[in-house]
Amino acid sequence: MAGPVQSIERAAAILRLLAGGPRRLGLGEVAASLGLAKGTAHGILRTLQHVDFVEQDTTTGKYQLGAALLHLGTSYLDVNELRSRSLNWADALAARSGEAVRLGTPLEGRVLVVHHVFRPDDSFQTLDVGTLLPLHASSLGKVLLAFGTATAEPDREPGLEAYTRHTLVDPERLARALAAVREAGWAAEIQEMSMGEAGIAAPIRGHGGLVVGAIGLSGPVERICDGQGRPRPALVSLLREAARAISRDLGAARW
């Protein structure tokens, strides 16, 4: 297996150095801090400057982080702000509902689970953080699709994957279901991704009311749904309260 690439390691060290200081640094300061020859440091800085990861002050000649790198970091910070603002509310929701809680954001045509609170009992459970869920077959994904936060991948053969006989794979049926999600303000999946499992989810909004993620409850059908196979109203209420609370923390107006 190939080892680490030294030039990339050195570039990363320079970026960390610039990120860790309160001021711009000159070529000599960068080279001395990292034990590099000035020529080596200058070559790496020029390359980082070329891709806008580093900027050079035209007056002093000193370097600082560039706009492109800061832009790349914004998406990471957005996800982590969403997660950090949700931690307490997610824990409280799991405790009050007795069910597992997951937080999701869109990633490359799927839902990335960025936080997962186990159901508060002694049952065996697997941590889902980092798991990618299908948009059309998960309650978290339906929320993101319904409110335009994520988009389904272009039509392709064989089309949307059917995980169970309940999965919505017909585009027209899925479109109607998403319209119902927008009207109700929450989504459900009932044995659509896994037989015997169900979930409900609600949108999390940020500044301006834009949906930036989704929070959901998941578990066995008999726990999430009533005897008629419909999500339990009490769980839906708890879920929506938590979603509104997180949204307020993120700067969304009350609704």
Automatic annotation (TrEMBL):
InterPro entries per UniProt: GAF-like_dom_sf, HTH_MetabolicPath_Reg, Tscrpt_reg_IclR_C, Tscrpt_reg_IclR_N, WH-like_DNA-bd_sf, WH_DNA-bd_sf
Membrane-crossing residue ranges in chain numbering: none
Protein name (database record): IclR family transcriptional regulator
Alphabetic keyword roster: DNA-binding, Transcription, Transcription regulation
Lineage, uppermost ranks: Bacteria, Bacillati, Actinomycetota, Actinomycetes, Kitasatosporales
UniProt domain HTH iclR-type: residue ranges: 5-67
Gene3D superfamilies: 3.30.450.40, Winged helix-like DNA-binding domain superfamily/Winged helix DNA-binding domain (1.10.10.10)
Organism encoding this protein: Streptomyces lavenduligriseus
Oxidoreductase found in the keyword field: no
Record-annotated IclR-ED domain positions: 68-252
Xref: SMART domains: HTH_ICLR
Chain coiled-coil ranges: none
PROSITE patterns per the UniProt record, alphabetical: HTH_ICLR, ICLR_ED
Pfam families linked: HTH_IclR (PF09339), IclR_C (PF01614)
